[in-house]
Recover the amino acids of this structure.
């Protein structure tokens, strides 16, 4: 068996390298497989970077991994102390949410998503604290009159740290209109801006305000919600069952409503998953085209080597061994192309900002040359080129995230598409009979 594999691989390698002198089909096939693997890895790495940054911003800042609702203030504190002992749960932080309007001087008003949290939330929820990048001021809710604003919201309102803002809840606006009461007790309060933060997630930076949880209670009759962070958000189903069991052991928590991040973000995450799947399919069509090319090349190779096949069969090679030669041709092409694409794809995906910066420099250099030429004809300059302009995209740099399982899957796609195409094309070997071929030699 060992000797059989040896001569099969030897002849397969000779066919590949000998064909290079006659036809570039093997080289083109390797380049096609490599290009497909490279493109898929880079595209999915950038897509993962954008999608995971959105998902993590939502889960770490606004949604939490699990939520426990329908509790009183006393029950929320008791539930938090119970749940932090559950395996897999990292933090349990109470909060209150309500929709409000914020006003500053004569600059009009803006809609805002207001969240009341405890002053020690950063020490309880380290992942949230890591994503709050304060451009001015710092996290300080020790005073119930302090507020923390998103950077874009603060820019729109024209406020800085130390400025005073007025916060209204949506229901209180209607009650004020009906009663004519404009006092602070009628659902509006003034706060001092203690910090301006940026999360990198546009929705949070343009509409979020943090205040003390007790101050938020004055705006809304809804009870507090307990936000839970897990050590691994993908273990949410197991953690949900453990949390439900732990709360069920204590009287008074029968009506506690538990939910997972998969429940209250289902449509958004489903849309991201569908987008990624279709991108994978569209770019993966490269492998279909290359596979057809390999199929045609291997069919031609079988016809070109009819005499060799007849000779191999005559000296003792069986149909499976001879057919394996051409399958190995395709497998070698697929392995070399997929390996080259994988190595180059991982290199580029790991250095996406540098890669795009180099391309922008090259393109802008060409644009500069073109501008010099067209200036002699009195034509206006062409503007600079940028893949992701900060004026359009709310990012400082292009994110990239490589998922090892996806990279391995893409490699196997490239390798198997070539091997399967060669296996399908090599079926012609079974129809070649040594006696018929050698009779005319």
């Amino acid at each position: 068996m060992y000797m059989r594999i040896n001569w099969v691989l030897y002849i397969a390698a000779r066919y590949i390298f000998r064909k290079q002198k006659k036809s570039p089909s093997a080289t083109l096939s390797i380049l096609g497989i490599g290009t497909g693997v490279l493109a898929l890895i880079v595209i999915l790495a950038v897509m993962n970077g954008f999608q995971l940054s959105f998902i993590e911003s939502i889960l770490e800042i606004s949604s939490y991994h699990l939520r426990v609702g329908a509790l009183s203030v006393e029950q929320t504190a008791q539930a938090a102390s119970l749940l932090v002992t559950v395996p897999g749960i990292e933090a349990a932080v109470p909060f209150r949410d309500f929709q409000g309007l914020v006003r500053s001087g004569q600059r009009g008003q803006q809609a805002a998503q207001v969240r009341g949290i405890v002053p020690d939330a950063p020490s309880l929820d380290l992942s949230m604290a890591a994503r709050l990048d304060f451009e001015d001021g710092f996290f300080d809710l020790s005073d119930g009159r302090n507020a923390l604003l998103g950077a874009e919201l603060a820019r729109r309102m024209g406020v800085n740290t130390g400025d005073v803002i007025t916060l209204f809840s949506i229901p209180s606006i209607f009650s004020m209109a009906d009663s004519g009461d404009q006092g602070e007790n009628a659902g509006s309060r003034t706060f001092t801006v203690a910090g301006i933060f940026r999360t990198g997630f546009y929705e949070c930076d343009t509409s979020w305000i943090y205040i003390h949880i007790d101050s938020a209670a004055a705006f809304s009759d809804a009870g507090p919600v307990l936000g839970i962070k897990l050590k691994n958000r993908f273990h949410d189903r197991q953690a949900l069952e453990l949390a439900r069991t732990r709360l069920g052991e204590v009287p008074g928590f029968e009506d506690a409503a538990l939910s997972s991040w998969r429940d209250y973000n289902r449509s958004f995450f489903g849309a991201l998953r569908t987008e990624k799947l279709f991108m994978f399919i569209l770019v993966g069509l490269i492998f279909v085209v290359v596979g057809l090319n390999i199929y045609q090349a291997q069919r031609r190779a079988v016809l070109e080597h009819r005499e060799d096949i007849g000779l191999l069969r005559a000296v003792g090679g069986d149909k499976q061994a001879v057919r394996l030669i051409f399958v190995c041709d395709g497998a070698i092409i697929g392995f070399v192309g997929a390996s080259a694409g994988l190595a180059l794809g991982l290199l580029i995906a790991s250095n996406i900002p540098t890669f795009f910066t180099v391309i922008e420099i090259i393109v802008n250099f060409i644009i500069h040359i073109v501008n010099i030429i067209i200036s002699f004809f009195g034509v206006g300059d062409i503007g600079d080129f940028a893949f992701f302009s900060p004026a359009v995209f709310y990012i400082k740099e292009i994110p990239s995230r490589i998922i090892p399982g996806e990279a391995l899957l893409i490699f196997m796609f490239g390798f198997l598409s070539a091997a399967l195409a060669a296996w399908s094309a090599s079926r012609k070997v079974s129809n070649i009979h040594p006696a018929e071929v050698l009779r005319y030699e």
Remarks:
- The beta strands are 66-69, 89-103, 109-117, 133-137, 146-150, 164-169, 188-198, 208-212, 225-230, 257-260.
- Residues 32 and 290 are 6 Å apart (CA to CA).
